[in-house]
Amino acid sequence: MIEKKPQIIDNFGRPHTYLRISLTDRCNLRCFYCMPEEGIELMEKPSIMTLEEIIKMTRTFRDLGVDTVRLTGGEPLVRKNFGYLVEELAKLGVTLKLTTNGIVLDKYLELFQKIGLRKINFSLDTLDKAKSVFITKRDYYERIMRNLNMALDMDMDLKINIVLIKGVNDNEINDFIALTRDKKITPKFIEFMPFKGNKWDWSKGVSKEEILKTVGDKFGEIETLDNPKHSTSTNFRVKGHKGSFGIVSTITNPFCDECNRIRLTADGKMKNCLFANSETDLLTPFRNGEKIENTILQAIKSKKYSRDGMDVKMDAEHYEQNRSMISIGG
Ligand code: SAM
Ligand code: SF4
Ligand code: SF4
Q: Which atom of ligand 1 has the smallest separation from the CA of 29?
């Protein structure tokens, strides 16, 4: 009889097959919605997983049924020897995906083509240079746009992550939609989410209904597309446009029913949910030479059904105890 391998299944029967690994808490930008104004206390180098530890831990998760791995951060591409890491991870036979701010993406596009990494979420909140400097507190706009076009020319499967914030970039919704007319590009509008120190307030957020109204008023008919299983966005297309668009409504309409995501922070802590305050240290037992499979299988059992138990009002006492997004890995 063939022995069935254990799978990472929570108490709601949801198999967890998608691992998001934060490679670093360092970043070359300072987006105001992602990190506190005063910055974050950076992780000490020895507490960060080495590249070999990341590879071995990923192998462990793969053997427990994980088939998709997203590399994120901080900014994943600033991790030293990122090229080596991604080549080794590609050998594990999982589908690799990346979320990046694009600043140094040009250095890696050929390698990505070689190893078959095509799915990239490219964070770009504005098409306006001055606003980009305001949001990111750095001046890389030209480089980001050049690398976006380079990735498009190389036929990468690109989603554009846009965190919509009222009075900042909500007047650009239709500029992003206009890009979908002739380009196979997918803007993904993300509702502003609360994390430690990011001064969240839903009055600054833009809901799915508001987005659809804005797009419909300008472009007319919007088609609703089928959402792939486990999709975090509801997906649409303006009739006749080549590209589609998505809305990630974590606040107003969370998509937790079929959640299959787990996270591993750069310091080797497993997080069951983006909003989970509790974490499970995998790196310490791993460094002690202990097997971590059972710890992982056990840890998932404490996952709550949705948003770590927070309702739509989002409880400040709860999320202020979470990490800042920059050190979780979105
Ligand atoms: N540095 C990379 C980047 O920006 O693409 C990867 C890490 S970043 C934390 C991952 C994603 O989280 C980005 O698309 C970013 O826009 C999103 N994000 C950060 N803070 C957020 C917030 N408060 N609400 C919603 N999305 C947020
Ligand atoms: Fe850095 Fe990404 Fe956070 Fe912006 S959103 S500060 S690029 S980690
Ligand atoms: Fe999964 Fe938590 Fe995100 Fe819901 S909020 S989809 S439970 S990670």
A: 1
pLDDT at 156 over 90: yes
Q: Report whether 159 contacts 186 (CB < 8 A).
A: yes
Torsion over CA: 210, 158, 307, 253 (sign): positive
1 — pLDDT class (breaks 50, 70, 90): low
**Residue 330 within a domain:** no
328 occurs within a structural domain: no
Q: Which CATH number covers residue 126? A: 3.20.20.70
Mutational pocket test of ligand 3: of 255, 277, 318, 322, the residue with most ligand atoms within 8 Å of the beta carbon: 255
Encoded tokens for 110 = 């050929």
15 near 7, Cβ under 8 Å?
yes
Write the DSSP string, 27-64. Answer: -S---TTTS-TT---PPPGGGSPPHHHHHHHHHHHHHT
**Distance of CA 107 from the midpoint of ligand 1 (Å):** 21
Q: Residue 229: which pLDDT band, with cuts at 50, 70 and 90?
A: confident
291 Cα–ligand 1 center, Å: 32
> Is residue 329 one of the residues assigned to a domain?
no
- Structural domain containing residue 207: 18-323
Ligand 2 binding pocket includes 27 (Cβ within 6 Å): yes
Q: Average pLDDT over the chain, rounded to whole?
A: 95
Whether 63 shows a pLDDT value over 70: the answer reads yes
Per the confidence metrics, is the pTM higher than 0.85?
A: yes
- Out of 32, 33, 34, 144, mutate this one to test ligand 2's pocket (max ligand atoms within 8 Å of CB): namely 34
Domain count, the chain: 1
Per-residue pLDDT tens digits for 240-291: 999 999 999 999 888 899 999 999 999 999 999 999 999 999 999 999 999 9
Is 174 among the domain residues? yes
Pocket test for ligand 2, best of 22, 23, 28, 29 (most atoms within 8 A of CB): 29
Read off φ and ψ for residue 65, nearest 5 degrees.
105, 0
